[in-house]
Design goal:
Layout (H helix, E strand, L loop, with lengths): L3 H12 L2 E5 L18 H4 L2 H4 L2 H6 L2 H12 L8 H11 L3 E6 L5 H5 L4 E3 L2 E8 L5 E3 L17 E5 L8 H13 L2 E5 L11 H7 L3 E6 L9 E4 L2 H16 L1
Parallel strand pairs: 1-2, 1-7, 2-3, 7-8, 8-9
Antiparallel strand pairs: 4-5, 4-6
Bound molecules: adenosine-5-diphosphoribose.
Adenosine-5-diphosphoribose binds next to loops.
Length: 244
């Protein structure tokens, strides 16, 4: 009897064209809190206040209060084994694209080449007045931090009530519609439009494999109930056995 890992690995080798949709759960083992699972950010802070574009425009210190520390320490956060496993799978021609909801930049830090950050990234910070760009660790002190011109600084991330970057969304939609397999990793799949991507893939004939510590996408064809940092390296090991 094939184990679930053997089955999933065989499918990925057979079809390739795997597109990943990752969420905060893939970065949990890098020490970055998730949003909605145990100890998540939204347990402590109401996103309708602390991550709303409307509120940011009148009181940016709310957002900077919850994100300032992370941004200052942006370079210290490192990818974990799950991110590295995806780099291996991209190098083996199995993963074609990584669509991430995460703003931590860890997929790019790990070395993934085809990455679309549909909620943007904390890496780049812009002045809302003069558009000067700052990189995360260079952000000046102050609450909220301000540009030399006096303008308020905002990370290049999508707050609630903001449009997603159109080009990124178009890429995500195209990759979801044309993949053979969508690998869901560590997402509660509740925030749209990202949450529509797995159904979009399924409607276009893709098989859905979910890796999560609790089931979030009931329509998944395969569910691996495991931490991403353990599951992804196991999938890579099974694939290497098949391709030996
Ligand atoms: N391995 C795998 N999955 C995990 C792990 C882990 N080590 N730890 C937590 N998870 C799972 C949780 O079970 C949950 O399903 O990761 C998921 C995290 O869900 P959320 O915290 O809701 O994060 P995400 O799905 O990325 O949120 C989507 O919501 O607030 C917005 O913009 C924000 O991009 C974010 C979006």
């Amino acid at each position: 009897m094939e184990t679930l890992y053997e089955e999933v690995a065989a499918l990925m080798v057979k079809f390739k064209k795997v597109v990943v949709l990752s969420g905060a759960g893939i970065s949990a083992e890098s020490g970055i809190p998730t949003f909605r699972s145990k100890g998540g950010l939204w347990e402590k802070y109401d996103p309708a206040i602390y991550a709303s574009f409307e509120v940011f425009r009148t009181d940016p210190s709310k957002y900077w209060k919850i994100r300032g520390e992370f941004i200052k320490n942006y370079d210290k956060y490192q990818p974990n084994q799950a991110h590295s496993a995806l780099v291996d799978l991209e190098g083996m021609g199995i993963v074609r694209y990584v669509i991430t909801q995460n703003i931590d930049g860890l997929h790019k830090k790990a070395g993934s080449k085809n990455v679309v950050e549909i909620h943007g990234s904390l890496r780049e910070i812009y002045c809302l007045q003069c558009s000067k760009e700052y990189l995360a660790p260079e952000v000046p002190d102050g609450m909220p931090p301000r540009c030399n011109c006096g303008g308020v600084l905002k990370p290049n991330t999508v707050l609630f009530g903001e449009q997603l970057p159109q080009e990124a969304l178009a890429t995500a939609l195209h990759e979801s519609a044309t993949c053979k397999i969508m690998l869901l990793i560590g997402t509660s799949a509740v925030v749209y439009p990202a949450a529509a991507l797995p159904s979009h893939a399924k409607q276009n004939g893709a098989r859905i494999i979910e890796v999560n510590i609790e089931k979030a996408f009931p329509e998944a064809d395969y569910f691996i109930e495991e931490k991403a940092g353990a599951a992804l390296p196991r999938i890579v090991a099974e694939i290497k056995l098949i391709c030996k």
